[in-house]
Design brief:
77% helix; mainly alpha; 0% strand
Length: 278
């Protein structure tokens, strides 16, 4: 104890800084891995340090906001995101999650305003802007702003990882607007180019023909979709049977199985309604 008391002030300061940096490193790892119990354990000791730098304080606000949001308490996360300074390294991440919190609260106008302000910024990389466009387009679609949503989806880059969802969004908005040709074009592209990411393309092509009352084409495409989904389901079930319950990809495979079962049911229902109309 005496040895510690005799250490020079500079040495004590360096030791303190190293401890804080290690704590922040552990916190960042916990946030990145979504280990929220660890985040909750680490936050109190860090929040009570009086000599934190502005970047450290901003990251604490972000971590706490993410913790609340992980629990579905979006209203409690909002003021924490809003306290983060514009010059912070985590500012864009905070504002993105702020927009998500607004959407979860049903505050559409606030969310749209936030996303439009983010999209007006010059510095973010293209893929981050594509993510914001996707969020805005989905929100506009859900709120019935179909023309605005279609325009927003159309600005997403074709090489983006969001492009498949953009084509689905364009097709759905076209359907709502009565543009069956535009819907078919989007859903065919979804079916041909993005079947692995979004398997709904085959069903949506058949459904669009159905809406157009082109029953022969609808029937043929429902049958094609049904055979495709049944084959995919068999492959998924075979893969699942070879996995243990603890395997990392088991939840994703089960989700895919449920998704395919739903598409099979929808395709079967579509066929049945065509038979009833004849």
């Amino acid at each position: 104890m005496l040895g510690l008391l005799c250490l020079p002030a500079v040495a004590l300061s360096q030791s303190f800084d190293q401890v804080i940096e290690q704590q922040f490193s552990d916190l960042r790892i916990a946030v990145r891995q979504a280990q929220w119990h660890r985040v909750e354990e680490q936050l109190p000791s860090l929040q009570h340090h009086y000599s934190l730098s502005p970047p450290q304080r901003s990251y604490l606000h972000l971590a706490e906001a993410l913790l609340w949001q992980s629990r579905g308490e979006h209203r409690r996360a909002i003021p924490l995101y809003e306290r983060i300074d514009p010059d912070s390294d985590v500012y864009l991440e905070a504002r993105t999650n702020l927009a998500i919190a607004f959407l979860k609260q049903g505050w559409w106008s606030d969310a749209h305003r936030e996303l439009e302000q983010l999209l007006a910024r010059a510095e973010p990389d293209a893929e981050l802007k594509n993510r914001w466009r996707m969020m805005l387009g989905m929100s506009q679609l859900q709120q019935g702003f179909y023309r605005d949503a279609r325009t927003t989806f159309g600005t997403i880059d074709q090489n983006s990882r969001h492009s498949a969802h953009a084509w689905r969004g364009i097709g759905l908005t076209a359907l709502h607007l009565g543009d069956h040709g535009g819907a078919l074009n989007a859903f065919r592209r979804l079916k041909e180019k993005h079947a692995d990411d979004i398997p709904e393309g085959a069903f949506l092509v058949a459904f669009t023909y159905d809406r157009m009352n082109r029953l022969k084409l609808a029937e043929a495409n429902y049958r094609e979709a049904l055979l495709h989904y049944q084959h995919q389901l068999q492959q998924t079930q075979k893969t699942l049977a070879q996995r243990s319950r603890e395997a990392a990809d088991t939840p994703a495979l089960k989700a895919q199985q449920n998704r395919l079962n739903t598409l099979i049911s929808q395709s079967q229902y579509g066929l049945a309604t065509i038979y009833d109309r004849r």
